[in-house]
Structures are given as C-alpha cells and as structure tokens.
Design a protein that fits this description.
413 residues, alpha/beta, 15-stranded parallel β-sheet, 16 helices, 15 strands, F-box and leucine-rich repeat protein 13, LRR_dom_sf, FBXL15_LRR, Leu-rich_rpt_Cys-con_subtyp
C-alpha cells in the first residue's frame, strides 16, 4: 500500500465501514496517507501496524484522529514511537488491548497514559522496552479487568514493581503472565503471585536466573495453572517434582535447564497424566529412563521436543511408540545416538505424527531417509555434526569450555 491507494480509499464509496485493518510492513505510507485513511475508515475497531520502522508519532496522531471506536491496536516492531504517540492513541478511547514491542523510547509515562485512559484494558503487552521501570508498573494498580500481562525483556523491572501489579485490582483476575528475561525478579515475587494471582493459567519466567527451587515449587500450588515455561532457569529435580502437585498442568517447557535429571522428570510425569506438550530440549542429563516413564504416564502427549539430549537412543523412540499414540510433533535434533532404526519404528507406529525434526542426527543416513521416510510426515533432516553451542560433539561427548572456546577462536580465524 502507498499514499495513492489510501487516497483512492478515502475518495471512493467502498470500505468505509471497515472494523479490522492490518497495515503491517506498509513502510511506504506517509503522514498524508494515514490522514486520508483516518477520514475514510473511521469505524475501525482493531488496528494492526506491525513491522513499521518508518512509523512516527505524527503518523499515529494523523491516523487515530477519527478512530473513536478503536478497541485494540498492535505496534510490534515500531522503534521510533515516543510517549506522545501513545498518549494520542489512548486518550479518550476505550482500548482493551494494546501491544508494543522493541521500543527504546517509550517510558513509564506511556504506562501512565494507558492506565489513566483505558481502565478496562484486558490485554497489555509491552515487550523489549528497556525504559519501563517499577514506577510505571505502579500505575497498573488501577486496571480492573487485565487478564494478560506480557512484560518480556523489560529488564529493569524488579519484585517491587510487579508487587504493585499483584496487589492491584487485576491481581486476582490475571490469567497469563510473561516475565521472560526480567532478570531481577526473585522468589519474593512468586510468593506474592501465589497469594494474590490465584487465577493464573499461563506463566513464563524464562531466563529469570534469581528464581530458586524454593520459589518455583510454589507454582505447583496455583490451582488453575495449565502452562509453565521455565526455560533457562536454575531449577532442579526438587522443584520439577513439586510442579506435579497441580494435576491440571498440560504444558511444560524446561528447555536449557541443565540441572534436570531423569529423577526429576520421572517424578513429574508420574503425576502429570494430562500433559500434552513437553519441551525438555538441551537438558543433556536426560536419558532413556525418563522417556520410558514419560511414554507410559503421559499418554495424551501431542508435542515432544527432546532435541540436544545426547543420551537419547533408539530405545526411547520404541517407548514413545508404545505409549504416546497421539504424538503429532516430535523433535529429536541433536540426538546423535538415534540410528536408521527410526524408519522401521515409523512403519509400526506414530500414526498421527505430522511433523518430525531430525537435524544433526549423525547416525541417520541420507540414503535410509530418502528410501524409507513416510511421505505423509513433514520432516526436516540433516546428519551434520551438532554446532558448538550444543555443548557436545557428533558422538555425544561433552565439550569442555576450554575446548569449546578454542574451537570458536579457530573458526573466527
């Protein structure tokens, strides 16, 4: 789309009652074009303007001048907007959903405007905005109906700011909370969440390195929790076993949790019969024993990612065929001990499998793949050696840090 097309839209007789408009990636549109669009389509309720590096405050002011019925807007990947644009956007409008991502200019003032003018906000996503601090979160106390809060990559947030939110009107109502890479939060926040946010169903605490087993264990006491993402945390078997006290959990992601072993996963699986989504990729201590327990305890599993688990062999796949009859997605990338036997197993089972990922499977031959791979399965395959960041070689031997650094230096040269 360009300004010319929007001028046609403004002067024509059609499309004046549009309620949904997506202008993502239309970087040719200028302030003039947005102004014409505002006049032509003033019934718009849902507006999406993602991936617009050319979007400025003037564009937003011109666009929303006549959008009094606007209820949701997405501004992902618009790095040149300032607080003034957010103020113009939310002022005198009853927005219930707003998404902003990758912006280094907006500050706590934007949160102040959002919370002042949009007290009925239900979905608030402000991600990768490093100037958002605890001061801004204090304004969220006034929001009454917030059910989704996504503050991923807002790295300056701490327990203090998030406590303000939990103690606010929406604390007991919030269902989804994403604090990925909010590296300053600690167990204190989890204690507050368990006390106040009892309706939480989805939580993400990826790479929150200050969370300990004592705090993570508390998540198992949330009565409605169904999805947990703890990627890259320091959790151990003790807290993983404690999570299984909630029988409603259907989705667990613990990728890159290096301290997780067979013992912890086995204890979790024994009590998680409703699990249908599991990602344990890059948990290098896991072996066939935990997959055996998983296969016969979690029979409703539809998604499984065991990539970069070098101890996994063909035996694990035999267990999965025997127990997980509903599996639709399987990722065994980097399972360097899996061999061509997998193709025989595919003939016997995995009838519902739709997608199979087998990158860096060094013992699976290209000839066997070409001849025996089932045509009805979408597959990604190569048998290259695993990349250095996997942490082990093509035989499954762990690469020490000194050796890894030396090889990386040789590659750079």
């Amino acid at each position: 789309w360009t300004d010319r097309g929007l001028n046609y839209l403004a002067s024509g007789k059609g499309c004046h009652r549009l309620i949904y408009l997506d202008l993502s990636g239309c970087t040719q549109i200028s302030v003039k074009g947005f102004k014409a669009l505002s006049i032509a389509c003033n019934e718009v309720q849902h507006l999406i303007i993602n991936d617009m590096a050319t979007l400025t405050d003037s564009c937003i002011v011109a666009l929303v001048a006549h959008y009094y019925k606007l209820s949701s807007i997405s501004l992902l990947g618009s790095p040149h907007l300032y607080d003034s644009a957010i103020k113009a956007l939310v002022q005198w409008r009853k927005l219930t959903k707003i998404k902003i991502d990758g912006n280094k200019h907006i500050t706590d003032n934007s949160l102040k405007f959002i919370c002042r003018y949009c007290s009925q906000m239900r979905i608030l996503c402000i991600t990768d905005c490093p100037r958002i601090t605890d001061v801004g979160l204090k304004f969220t106390e006034s929001l009454r109906n917030l059910i989704v809060l996504n503050l991923a990559d807002c790295v300056r947030l701490t327990d203090v700011g998030l406590k303000h939110f939990a103690d606010g009107n929406s604390g007991p109502k919030v269902r989804e909370l994403n604090l990925t890479n909010c590296i300053n939060i600690s167990d204190f926040l989890l204690i507050k969440l368990v006390q106040r946010c009892t309706n939480l169903t989805h939580v993400k605490f990826c790479y929150c390195e200050h969370l300990s087993d004592n705090g993570i264990e508390l998540l198992g006491t949330l009565p409605n929790l169904t999805s947990v993402d703890l990627t890259g945390t320091t959790m151990q078997d003790q807290s993983l076993a404690a999570l299984s006290t909630n029988s409603k959990c259907t989705e667990l992601i613990i990728s890159e949790c290096q301290d997780i072993t067979d013992i912890g996963l086995q204890k979790f699986c024994h009590r998680s019969i409703n699990l249908n989504y599991l990602d344990v990729s890059h948990c290098m201590a896991l072996s066939n024993q935990s997959i055996k327990t998983l296969s016969f305890s979690c029979r409703l599993l539809t998604y499984l990612n065991i990539s970069a688990c070098p101890k996994i062999t063909d035996l694990s796949l035999q267990y999965l065929i025997g127990g997980c009859h509903y599996l639709r997605y399987l990722d065994i990338s980097g399972c360097v001990r899996v061999t061509d036997v997998i193709f025989k197993l595919l003939k016997k089972g995995f009838r519902k499998l739709l997608f199979l990922k087998m990158l860096y499977c060094t013992k699976i031959t290209k000839s066997a793949f070409d001849k025996q791979m089932r045509a009805n399965i979408q597959c990604e395959f190569n048998n290259f050696a695993p990349p250095l960041w996997y942490g082990y070689d093509g035989l499954g031997n762990i690469i020490k840090k000194e050796e890894k650094n030396q090889e990386e230096e040789e590659e750079d040269e």
